[in-house]
Amino acid sequence: MSLKLHNDAGETLSGPKLVWQLIAGYRSMYLWAALALFISTSFQFIIPLIGSATIDYVLTEPEAGKTANSSPLLRYVMDLIGGEELVSTRLWIPLIAMVIFAALGGLFNYYQKLAAAKASDGICKRMKDQLYDHIQRLTNRYLDHDTQTGDLVQRCTSDVETTRIFLAAHVVEIGRSVILVLTVLPIMLSMHVGLTIASLGLLPIIILYSYLYIKKVKHLFTEVDEAEGRLTSLVQENITGIRVVRAFGRHDYEIEKFEKPNSEYRDTSLKLINTMSWFWSISDIVSLTQIGIALIASAYLAIQGSVSVGTIFAFLALINMVLWPVRMIGRILTDFGKTSVALKRINEILTQPFETETDDISCKPDTAAQGSIELDQVSFSHSSDSKTVEDISLSVSPGETLAILGPSGSGKTTLMHLLLRFYDCDSGTIKLDGNDIKTLDRSYLRAQFGVVLQEPFLYSRSIRSNIQFGVSQANQIEIEEAARMACIHDTIQTFTDGYETEIGEKGITLSGGQRQRVAISRALLRNPPILLLDDALSAVDNETESSIIQALQSRRGKSTTIVIAHRLSTLAHADKIVVLEGGRITQFGTHKTLTEEDGLYQRLWNIQTKLEETLAAETQR
Ligand SMILES: Nc1ncnc2c1ncn2[C@@H]1O[C@H](COP(=O)(O)OP(=O)(O)OP(=O)(O)O)[C@@H](O)[C@H]1O
After folding, report:
1. Which CATH class is domain 373-591?
2. Which atom of ligand 1 is nearest to the CA of 535?
3. CB 406 near ligand 1, within 6 Å
4. Residue 492 and residue 499 in contact, taking contact as beta carbons nearer than 8 Å
5. Which of 211, 142, 144, 174 is nearest to 37 (CA)?
6. Distance in angstroms (rounded) separating the CA atoms of residues 473 and 471
7. CATH for 15-350, options being 1.10.357.20, 2.160.20.10, 1.20.1560.10, 2.40.10.270
8. 3-state SS assignment for residue 555
9. Which residues contact 558 (CB under 8 A, 6 or more apart)?
């Protein structure tokens, strides 16, 4: 059952509606917990009443007026445990009765807590699953511009935990408070109306005060949560970039940079603690005043002889039973304030549109693509300032190799992202096998590509599971074949654990070139109709580069290949070469035609061949 925490207008629900929606699917479990709570609370009531009845009918001298002023309820309780004649000779009866009721109360309390914990853990697991699932499907625009990784992590962990604590400890506690107030009140009223008013008169004030106070300070919970989110993001970024910090000797700068959000977090936390301390102190003063008033009123009525000692004993025990949960209402409201802020932040993610939200799929072929690609007047901008790629038209036939060259920032990677529909082009069309990719199912579309991104990301898992990432059922022979083509098989064999070698945080660190080659193996293992290599050989040496190119050429005709590179040696073999400058195609041809044509390609060719000649001459000397 999926979680829906907002109304039709997309606003996060609030108050009881939010809690009701949150516990959807687990309401019956909470009902059982509430029932257990009710039974456990009832047993708790009986204990002081047994004590009071024993005081009034057995322990107090039966002077005129005293037992006569005892309440009918205590009379009933005394009869229930056997009557004063029996109890006066067997004082252990009330004692055993109290122990039995306490034990039964404890047992039901245990069940109540277990049911609430199961429900809260279940709700939060569902919430985390849903968040994780949703994050996988968010649009690239949202991930690029509207959020930070650390903040996302905080929402999925700390905010969910805040919710869990509230659900485990407080949802049933609200029930307890309501049950207590609703049951204790008639019991007290049945015993003595005046003393009840004196004992509970401040209760509405405490409840109203708690409600208004928490409402007023709720914004502080948001501030603390946001400050924590900023801090988490900074820590996450810093740990990821720790080598850069060290290489540039920027520890002091980074420590100083950390100081500000860290201080902000401390200051907002302190502000919240200070505000809440005031809240608790004032609520304590009112509660203690309430007990004081009850004590004075009891003493006055006892001196007058209008209430029995047992009634006073019962009242004092019952006031404590009610005041504690009423004071808990303050804590519940506080935690509910925190939880509703956390849920709002969680809901912000859950209400983000999926990247597939506006898809209008009219075409989902059953077979793999042939691999023909056609771009017709494609334009796209990352921001409203300028176009990232403009008016791009080109075509690649199945099995052909297209190379893209261009200065940094000219839009090469963006073009690749458009092919994969990480973004949709603003105008123009991209077709795969004659079908507009906007009409194709995204997972079908992406399954047609083997991609090596510019910064290949590898998981902290074994080399095998990294290569196997896109084809989990691939066997050892297929994995090794892909690794051989990417010229990484021999290197893997030198590792003690071979393909089982753990990489990343859990194991060895691969060099940049090795990472690229593992990523190429991963892409090749899919045997994709289209292979996209974005600067995928930039970190490998010339010799390995030429071996990989040879291996790729041996696959010629099997896949359409699109290669982005800065080194002309990587591009020269391509069937077609496109030169991209400032987001536009400025040259188009083959290596031969472009070396003869005035332009960027020729200039780079001249520089690179001259460099190679100089190097060769230097080596001969
Ligand atoms: N997610 C993004 N949000 C905003 N702008 C972006 C984003 N990605 C890229 N850009 C901008 O788009 C332009 C083209 O970037 P792109 O990565 O496509 O260039 P490139 O030709 O692949 O560069 P390089 O050769 O350095 O990899 C750059 O000006 C870059 O700043």
Report:
1. alpha beta
2. 27
3. yes
4. yes
5. 174
6. 6
7. 1.20.1560.10
8. coil
9. 399, 527
* Residue pair 396/547 in contact by the 8 Å Cβ criterion: no
Specify the residue with its C-alpha closest to ligand 1, atom 16.
411
Name the residue of 148, 410, 538 whose CB sits within 8 Å of the most ligand 1 atoms, as the mutation to test its pocket. Answer: 410
* Rounded Cα gap, residues 279 and 259, in angstroms: 30
Which atom of ligand 1 sits closest to the CA of residue 417? 18
Residues 6+ apart with CB under 8 A from 221: 272, 337, 338, 341
pLDDT along the chain (621 residues), means of 10: 72 77 87 88 84 81 53 80 81 88 91 91 92 88 79 87 88 77 81 84 82 80 83 81 78 83 90 86 84 84 79 80 73 80 87 78 82 94 86 93 92 93 92 91 90 85 89 89 91 90 75 88 91 85 80 81 86 90 92 90 84 72 66
Is 144 touching ligand 1 by the criterion CB < 6 Å?
yes
Give the domain ranges of the chain: 15-350, 373-591
Of all protein residues, the one whose alpha carbon is nearest to atom 27 of ligand 1 is 408
Ligand 1, atom 25, residue with closest C-alpha: 408
What is the spatial distance between Cα 121 and Cα 107, in angstroms, rounded to a whole number? Answer: 21
CA angle 238, 244, 248 (to 5 degrees): 120
